[in-house]
Immunity MXAN-0049 protein domain-containing protein (Aquimarina mytili), 198 residues
Amino acid sequence: MKTNDKIKFQRWKSDFENKFCAFKYMYVEEQDEIDNGISVLDSLSEEILCEARDYDKLNQLADNLYGTGYPVVSDKLKSFLEKKIDSKHIEFLPVTLIDQQKRNIPGEYYLINALRVVDCIDIEASGVVWNPLEPSEIMHYEKGLELQESKIPENLKLFRLKKHSSTIIVRSDLVTEIEQTGFSGLYFPDAKGYMGVG
């Protein structure tokens, strides 16, 4: 990338693929800590469970699971990311996959906890609408998300957005590397213009 090229940022999402098993939205006791970029690896209060919707029919697992609500990745994708992202910026929380009969599904999977939260949303340009129940949190964007890129450290590959912490942002050069490896279940829509829903 040339130094004068505009840096792009994308959102970490999962992609539904018919041949792979889908999962139910996960409950995680440490949700508040995770949303605020706090490490919980050494203080998990209970096992993190992730239940499959249709494992009895589709027993193939993607590298990035669909439907979980959090990024949940295979051991293979975890190993790749560990080589690309500073360990101070990310941690991987072990997840136990179960089927609808609560039986363990073979395979090592991990919830991605992005440990960096960056205050870089252009509030005015994005047309931020605040959550009436949580006034410090963004509900959606009337004009579409705009980032103040000058506030994002150059070495930061993956981070959460302050005031909209459920959104994980990935630098586009890392997206390119991930996509070139052929991992399954991944989807990286542009961050710019995101309306805050979906």
User: Anything to note?
Assistant: DSSP finds four helices and twelve strands in the chain. Residues 75-84 form the longest helix (10 residues).
